[in-house]
Amino acid sequence: METEKIKKQIKHKMIEYIGAALGLVAALAWNDAIKSIIDYWFITGNGVIAKLIYAVLISILVITVTYYLVQIEKKK
Known about the structure:
mainly alpha, elongated
């Protein structure tokens, strides 16, 4: 019985890790695409400012989403 429970937990964790890895790959692809758009729209000097603004906006988005996910988890 105990070994079946451990096997289920391992399987669940592996699925979580694979999902997280795929999410990271997608995030890196989007990051590259957005950086290319910034490079295309903004010439050298302004590109640094645009990338800084992008980084701040992404950070705010990540903090907000993480906050709401923690709140959802607390309700369970």
